[in-house]
Give the backbone structure.
Amino acid sequence: MKNSKIEINKVYEITIGKQKTTIKVLEVERRVNGKLVYHCINTGTDKPMVVSDVARFLREIKPKKPAKGTMSDAGKQPGVLSGLDAAYKVLVEAGRPMKVKEIAMIALENGYCKLKGATPEFTISSAIQRDIAAKGNASRFVKADRGLFAAR
């Protein structure tokens, strides 16, 4: 990348040895010898770092846009939970394993979330299963039996 392309408050992928990481540029400093130095923070570890070689910058990481038909956190109505958070709330309140169709029905009836799709139970089921697969034992959910989920 060129020096002119690197801007403050943007996130970039850089190389550290053979590894790649993402950083956010906090400040650009021009040294006495005219060389630019970038004061950054590692987005994965929140540790400050200084990058003096512009060749380490690989590309800018663009902020992700919300999926079509969903709201970003900024556009979210106050008091309305995501489908995953609503499912967790329903399971905690029930205190027992439940089928996803029942979870979705209670969440929508109580106004915990607003799922606009034709099959909200599939949306919630998919979200719960992705959460369990990604987080393992750290997930808020546990699969109790075939088609049954519970709060951990």
Remarks:
- The chain has a mean pLDDT of 85.
- The beta strands are 11-16, 19-30, 36-42, 48-51, 57-61, 98-99, 141-145, 148-151.
- The radius of gyration is 22 Å.
- Helices lie at 83-94, 100-109, 120-135.
